[in-house]
Protein 1
Amino acid sequence: MTLKVELLAYTPGGEMLSAMAAKLTHSKSSIEELRGGDEKQLGNILRHVIKMGHESVIEHAYFTFAISGVSRALTHQLVRHRIASYSQQSQRYVESEIEYVTPPSIKAAGMEREYIDTMGKLWHIYDEFREKVPVEDARYVLPNAACTKIMVSMNARSLLNFFELRCCLHAQWEIRALAWKMLGLVRKVAPVIFENAGPPCKTKHKCPMNKKDCRWYPMDG
Amino acid sequence: MTLKVELLAYTPGGEMLSAMAAKLTHSKSSIEELRGGDEKQLGNILRHVIKMGHESVIEHAYFTFAISGVSRALTHQLVRHRIASYSQQSQRYVESEIEYVTPPSIKAAGMEREYIDTMGKLWHIYDEFREKVPVEDARYVLPNAACTKIMVSMNARSLLNFFELRCCLHAQWEIRALAWKMLGLVRKVAPVIFENAGPPCKTKHKCPMNKKDCRWYPMDG
Amino acid sequence: MTLKVELLAYTPGGEMLSAMAAKLTHSKSSIEELRGGDEKQLGNILRHVIKMGHESVIEHAYFTFAISGVSRALTHQLVRHRIASYSQQSQRYVESEIEYVTPPSIKAAGMEREYIDTMGKLWHIYDEFREKVPVEDARYVLPNAACTKIMVSMNARSLLNFFELRCCLHAQWEIRALAWKMLGLVRKVAPVIFENAGPPCKTKHKCPMNKKDCRWYPMDG
Amino acid sequence: MTLKVELLAYTPGGEMLSAMAAKLTHSKSSIEELRGGDEKQLGNILRHVIKMGHESVIEHAYFTFAISGVSRALTHQLVRHRIASYSQQSQRYVESEIEYVTPPSIKAAGMEREYIDTMGKLWHIYDEFREKVPVEDARYVLPNAACTKIMVSMNARSLLNFFELRCCLHAQWEIRALAWKMLGLVRKVAPVIFENAGPPCKTKHKCPMNKKDCRWYPMDG
């Protein structure tokens, strides 16, 4: 299975809303005046407040993704992000097809054949168990690799945090691939908010973990 | 000043998204299949899951309001709702015009004249102080009645909770008026999600506080 | 492996704190006076506000659990509760011993032998992979049944919600067993807060899902 | 009125719990082994993870404060911190005594006399209104300066964020004074967690806002 992520919906004009919110906090302007504001000026305000770390205004911009072709190893990490909303396909109610994620390292190690065999056997046993016990119990034999589908909504501030942590080379490879894909999607519709999104090494030439052995480690901070 | 509330933005197709999310959790369907789903069927699914109390799926629908003509008495209550995002006009940075909310009970008691005088004097003193001390300190004399502007974003689940608490007759009159106006606005764009929104007496013929002396108390539960 | 849960820590005097908080909102009393309050009276206040649904005051009481002998099927559900804090043993960094949870239905169906064999083979393959690929990739073959350890902190309000959902017969059996054990532990140290905790059928003789085919369905509502 | 803040309760052994949580994520140790761990070693682990920015483990340490002698100008800012729990004395139900906060700048400008007079008149009018209208409406004339009491609970991670923002010279003076007092209190009981708490200029020799005109601006970064 291949990772697939789609931006299902997002707040229309979310960047302008965020800029209006920023201006509202420091201005006498009425909502009408804010709304009629100059787009370029609002863009500059938005850029400025994000740079200053005043990220609360971008919480008004909200994004909903559909994700499939990912493992439950990935989603167990994903749902740890608490400022977000999730709807995930249930393994308790939905019978699992034989669909799984294969780590690239396993292919690289020449072990893909064994991996595929293992998966085949596991789903065979799963199907056997399913005839005797509830689906929700049969699934105890299913592997972390098993594919799942999930819908995720996050506001832009929570996304910035997600990208900071999960686009990092230190993040697990599968969720990192997802994070970069999500970043690509939101950059198209909110280019100002996300222009400096990503791991701190790329955006701030800093590494909070000071991981000098990382090949992305900032040399030019 | 008069309460003014506007629905600035909302998730396009938020109800269909929520219904898709509900279906996704219990179905093998792909995202594509879910998206092509029958609208009427999806509406029924949505109605069903809300009735069952499975409200997490409606978190994918997100709403942003601009609110003005409300008192800081109101906003101090409003911002207690934590599953929400706020951007409020600052009294630290923005000089306050003489704009305030007058409680109806004060008019009814024939005390509006005295109220207006008090407000006039307060802003006069505020202006005096402002010449000598920072705006953020001069505002210590400003009343709870002083008007403010605020942008608010909430997802539909958090809104349902907000309407349950704040549309109730037990809620303070000013925030109750706001809540009913907000409910009116979201009902237009998400009629299924909000068709039973409001205080429990109206929606469930029940009163969690069992307030038998309330004129809305359910007689026909 | 057997489910093991321990109450590692909790707010000392959390019930009295919660009752003080309730009284504070409606009283002129100073903190000193509140603290010197009559224990029985405070207990009654606490009982009253919980009954009225004013649960915010019990957020001041906080509980930390250590949980082990549970499957990752369980923790994937557990961490969906967002008003909580989690620290979980990582499968990326820690090599997994052969430890797993066996669903009772599998024993009942006489399939335990096959289950044990499957687990044995899986860990054997896991060990093989581990020699060639990173632990974080080898674990893709590990099953949902694999044991994990996790520390969890929740405030009392979030716990009430957790118990309402997860002590329910509709909840998955493993997390239900955990929920009842946690409830047993907190009842000992906060008997007033948790005296009516649990599924709605037990506490309110109501079923939000109206599951008439459930053997716990309330007959005497 | 004078600001008064008291640490009412906190998680016993919260630092050791946090260190155990940190160790748990990367270790095979059982809970028993973790608990019996060397205190000094656990302290070092805790220091290390905080420095790396892995702050989730300190969410297990929870703190409850009682705050009085503060203005509603302050609490309106305070309750904007959403990862926290609040119980505040209600102006709807509790008649307000004449108690208020006086900004130092007003004393310094020689305007204290006028300020005191204003407050006196305001409460006089408040008392007049109270005879004719509900307390919740009379309070519309009460000033931002009016004193309030509030109980607050936050976990250590949320507190670190609170101290970063509110101990800053850019924060409003009253909430800054509160923040430094709270920091003093928690440092006594959790010295490792809070040893580098405070504004970024003090803790990291950096200013996210790059406020070069600030007298605390870091010269030696």
Protein 2
Amino acid sequence: MQYVITAVGPDHRGLADPIVHCVTQLGGNIAEIQMYDHDEASVFSMLTRVELDPANDASLRQSIAEISARTGLSIRTWMPRRLDRKPRLAICCTLRTETPRAVLAAIKSGEIAAEAAALISNRQTCRGLAEEFDVPWHDIGRPDGSADDERMIDICDELGVDYVILARYMRILPPSSCWKYAGGRIINLHHGLLPSFPGMRPYHDAHAARMLTYGATCHFIVPELDAGNQIINQTTFTVAPGTSRDEIIRRGEQQNEPACLVEGVRRVVDREVALHFNRVVALKV
Amino acid sequence: MQYVITAVGPDHRGLADPIVHCVTQLGGNIAEIQMYDHDEASVFSMLTRVELDPANDASLRQSIAEISARTGLSIRTWMPRRLDRKPRLAICCTLRTETPRAVLAAIKSGEIAAEAAALISNRQTCRGLAEEFDVPWHDIGRPDGSADDERMIDICDELGVDYVILARYMRILPPSSCWKYAGGRIINLHHGLLPSFPGMRPYHDAHAARMLTYGATCHFIVPELDAGNQIINQTTFTVAPGTSRDEIIRRGEQQNEPACLVEGVRRVVDREVALHFNRVVALKV
Amino acid sequence: MQYVITAVGPDHRGLADPIVHCVTQLGGNIAEIQMYDHDEASVFSMLTRVELDPANDASLRQSIAEISARTGLSIRTWMPRRLDRKPRLAICCTLRTETPRAVLAAIKSGEIAAEAAALISNRQTCRGLAEEFDVPWHDIGRPDGSADDERMIDICDELGVDYVILARYMRILPPSSCWKYAGGRIINLHHGLLPSFPGMRPYHDAHAARMLTYGATCHFIVPELDAGNQIINQTTFTVAPGTSRDEIIRRGEQQNEPACLVEGVRRVVDREVALHFNRVVALKV
Amino acid sequence: MQYVITAVGPDHRGLADPIVHCVTQLGGNIAEIQMYDHDEASVFSMLTRVELDPANDASLRQSIAEISARTGLSIRTWMPRRLDRKPRLAICCTLRTETPRAVLAAIKSGEIAAEAAALISNRQTCRGLAEEFDVPWHDIGRPDGSADDERMIDICDELGVDYVILARYMRILPPSSCWKYAGGRIINLHHGLLPSFPGMRPYHDAHAARMLTYGATCHFIVPELDAGNQIINQTTFTVAPGTSRDEIIRRGEQQNEPACLVEGVRRVVDREVALHFNRVVALKV
């Protein structure tokens, strides 16, 4: 059975050794291991993907709990290929309702074979969706408009969330959150074509470049600022010359973005794709 | 009636005055005028778009001929909105047959309401198309693989060509050719999305960027190296993760590029779009 | 004698004809002519550089005044090579004092052979410089922090300003202002290397790219958003690995930027460089 | 004592476990560990930086030799902070002599406190330098102009080379070579400012962008195509408008590039900077 273990700690010393010891003593094999040390952001972290006999599952969890208690490391153990239940999704949103609604509807219809564990937001705009689709609503907004990033992670931990879906969620996750759910568990919908239009206003940027093609990109978040974009799905639409920017944005937000995100989440949930050494690989072609 | 007059000369002195005099003396109005002086490339040129009473057409042509004879300027007068005949196209190609074939077929079927005046190439690969579609074939290739750029212009002049279609024509037109047919008369098919992937190998570049979206761009050539891209049409297709680059190129060359160019040429021929002060504007929305 | 004539009007019709007629009837030669039509910004403008017998100077000015009165066009006539007086500079600033101080000091010392006609600002921070160097102070700030762009142009018109110096002036000039003083009369100091770091925070961007080289760029403003950068001078400094961003900004603002701008303005005032068909050319090499 | 251990193998399975076991059994601490798996390039590799009691040095080397023999992994153990001898440099060059000459001269004069272990080239142009500075010459060129990349690594292994200096070496090292000498041991001189001008012709590109600033960049090679540039030193020079491109290239190649590389190599050899988790960090500020 494959396990993905992530650890975030106060410095880079003592980060790798206890987990590596634990895994190798249980007879596990290290399939991938990455460390990250960024003094400026005070983020020190490790990801390792290991193969371990499922008979040792309880021993692994006990050892990890002991390491966590002894060292103060924030450690998570995730099984990407568990078969005993559907994947649990936390859907994060802010102001736009189209993409979270589309994911919730696709779960309800069975197109996405997952469970909607939570709708998390830093604003009130999408609260009605929680009631409509009968999904627990979690408000992590602060009075100043920012979000309680640690609360988001706590919610996901408590609910046993497998994947965090950023459905036009307008806040940038801090590196520590990205590392805690590293390994291909955070899926973002960007409302422009990556890597060409990465900014906050990709429709405006593409329009200013006089393009007639607009698109959306569904990708894994990888917890390094410099990393390339790990694209899971892209969808596009083209317009005739003279189409107004407002009309372009309307078509993008109402039709193209929801379709892009739903298909991207479906590919991950159905394990057609996965993150492997920071690259998206096709598991079934 | 609108006329587009282009002039290319040996220096920038004496370039504008005689033509401006001629037009204003005939009672014409200057709707647009641009000059270009690039010492390094030894290209000095002017474009003016004027409105003139068609009754003065013969006088204009006679005056321009006299100016040309007296000054040595290379001057062309073009009527973008003539109604007495279909636009004449010169289709330029090199090695790939898909896009020139698609344009020829669309002319034959009537989808593009134009006349195929010539098939021009610097290689022999597409010669069969000329026979198949009964279009005059012009070989402008030189033994070293380059093209006789002046011969291309001479052919277009002799045949009264309205639009030059670059259908995966693999040579870069010199600035003097671009200026001689300036004003929205040269239409290029680029086999990538502009402005994101401008190079010689856009499929490879987009693939290296791990994109899942590929596209083609049909645009006017504007005779300044620094100018933005004047996009007439863009078409895209998306692929699943894991699709091979060869398969992507195959789909792009065989399906996407021909469709992109045919629709782009149709928009120009049907005067749905035109070049106006270096921008593409929609004439009918 | 060379004249640069700029015209800004309510549409592109009727923009070129009256000025072209006037110049050619006075026996002038058109050395350069450019028109610009941008519906979205409602800016329609023309620049022409002509050679005219100075004996016709009064006739030119009278004719232009009549055209302006009759058509409502906003027309300016500028003589870039006048010898009867030193060039007059309007120095525009906002919050940083280093670069305007350096220009004022270089004028006082004679390094820049010009006259400081005005210190213009949308903030109060640099007011002390006006008193210190005995230069008229013009406050064009509005309560909301923006600037009265038309007032800036009015001041420059009234004072017979030859060159507008943007010395870390933090507002973007509207296209109409750029066109009114087109032809190489607006000189900007950008606090980063162009074209690599064009944004509002070039020190931050270069630091984020882990560069060890930082620079400043003095360039002509050319009134088209898409135009390349017309660089008059660039200066750089390099730092050792580990140098803090604050220290880098301090060195840039206090030492590098002032030196860059002073030398750039000197090159223009001494007519070592000029703008010629949107390119910077060296007049004396 | 710090050790950097790199391993390159035929697949990613079995890459990490034996080395991790060996190090932890000897009581070492893992300070950094990275793995890389790129199926397309068939490169599978690992880097680990460990702290180990020097008393275990012989045990480490013996264990590594056994692992290498048993698994077929290509493993290297490097001590970046050894004090018993000067660092040994392999200087790689192709056609230009200025930068390799400058490094050799700086070693001879003592400015760079290192030993020139070898001059390696795929061409004959720099052979005279080997004789002049009495450094062993190694020709790794092939008849077709390419280089024997494996021979380069063999030479460095045999000579106990600490750092590989690419002094305008015109071949791209394969990923396997980069990984074998990973950890901040390969130093490149790029003849343009990074990251702005990364291509093969940075002087031409910056000149085409009308820049007046030109530069060179000395950086560590990091064995992932997508990685940012790890800059050790940058030097620049500025030119007056109108300076010819040939003159710019002459100044760059003869003055700026040699100075940039010599200072960069000196910083590494004097351990003022080092590579730490893919970033350049200042060790003494």
